Amino acid sequence: MTATAAATTTPARRRTRTGGPGDRSGLLENILGWTLVVVIAMFVTQIGLM
Question: pTM of the entire structure?
């Protein structure tokens, strides 16, 4: 990789959101996670597995 190519790709990589610990979507992720848990629990209860 040349110096020019490295210089042009570096800023784009900094802006890429990967879902790692640096992202600040913790509250939304927790809400969606608990919603999924509740939906799965309702489904399991309705089909009589518990």
Answer: 0.50
